[in-house]
Amino acid sequence: MARARTPALVLGLLFLVLACGAGIWWYLHPQPGPLKLSKVSFAELDGWAATDPRAALGAFQQSCVALAKKPDTEPMGTYGGTLADWRAPCAAAAQAPDARRFFEQWFQPVAVTAGRVAQGRFTGYFEPEIKGSRTRHGAFQIPVYAKPDDLIQVDLGAFRPALKGERLAGRLDGMKLVPYPARADIEAHGLNAKILFYTDDPVELFFLHIQGSGRVTFDDGTTARVAYAAQNGQPYTAIGKTLIARGVPKDGMSLQVIRAWLKSHPAEAAEVMNSDASYIFFSEEQLGDPRLGAKGAQGVPLTPKASVAVDTRIHGLGTPFFVAGPAPLGRVLIAQDIGGAIRNIVRGDVYFGYGEKAEEQAGTMNQPGRFYALLPKPVVERLARAGTLQ
Description:
It is built from twelve helices and 17 strands.
C-alpha cells in the first residue's frame, strides 16, 4: 500500500509547482523568436540535388517501426499533424526503391525558423568506447551505475500541455520530493544503486555521460552496448565553458581540446568535470548490428549521419529534416534522439557513429545550418488553410 501511495504524494507536490505553469514554460523555453513555418520547394533547398538520402530512408524506415506502435491521434510535435498523417508515407517507405523520389513524392519541405532567425547551430555526437570489468580490481575502480530504484522521473507535459517535453527527476525525502544528488555528490559518496560494471578512466566515463550511450569492451574480451537509462535531473553544463572561464582559449574549443586538457591536468580534472551537475545512468544491451548505434530517444537504433537529436518540445521524433549548410550538413536527417543541450527551434545534434573517425568529426562539429522539415503533403495543406504557413 505504501508503494501505491508514493506517486500520489509526488503528484500532489507537482501540482503546487505547476500552479505557475505559464511562468515556468517561458523560463524553460528560451527561444529567440516564435516558431515560423514557410512552404518551399525541393528546388529551393540549397544542396538538395547533390545529397544522397538513401541512409536517411533506412533511418526513416526504422522510425516508422516505432511510430506504428502508437495511436493515430499521437501528435508529431507542435506542427507535424498526427500519426494518422504519417501512416501512408511509412507504408510507402517500406517498399520505396528510390530514396530521392520517395521523399519528393510523399513530402513537402517547410522552412523552420525562430522568428526572423533562419540559421541555428548544429553540433555532433558519437558512440564512445570504454574499458570495463565485471569485478572491481586493479585499475577498474570506477562504478558505472544503472538507474537507481529511488530515482523518480515525472513528465510535466502529463499535467500541463504547455510543459510538454519538460521533466523533473528527484527522490523522496519522507513526504517531500527533493532534487537528486549532483555529479560532485555522487562522485564523492557513491550511490545505493546497481553497478553494471567498473571502468578504469574517469575522463572516458565522463565523455560516455556526455554522449549518452556507447560501447564497453570487457577485460574478458566480450563487448556490449551501454545505453542511456535515465538522468539525475540536474542541469547540464558544457565544461568547455568552464575551461574558457579558466583561461583556455575559446577559439578551437572541441571535444579533443577538452580531453587533452583533462588528461594533462589530473589534479584539476575532477573539479572541472563536476562543474557539470548532470549525471547519466545506463543499461547494458547486446551489441547487435555493429554498423548501427545504440537506441535513441525514439527507441530505434541510430544511423550514422542520418539521425539527429532535436528539441521535442517543438519537433516530433521521426520527422525527416533537410539540413542545409556546409559539409557534413546538406543532407536528410531523421529526428530520432534528444539531448540536454538541444533546446531551441533551429538546433540539432548530428549522430556520427562509432570509432575514431566518428569521434573526430563529432568533436569538431559546430556550425550554422537551416532546418527544413519534410512534412506529409496533407499536413502542409492543412497548415496553409489554417494560415499557419508564412
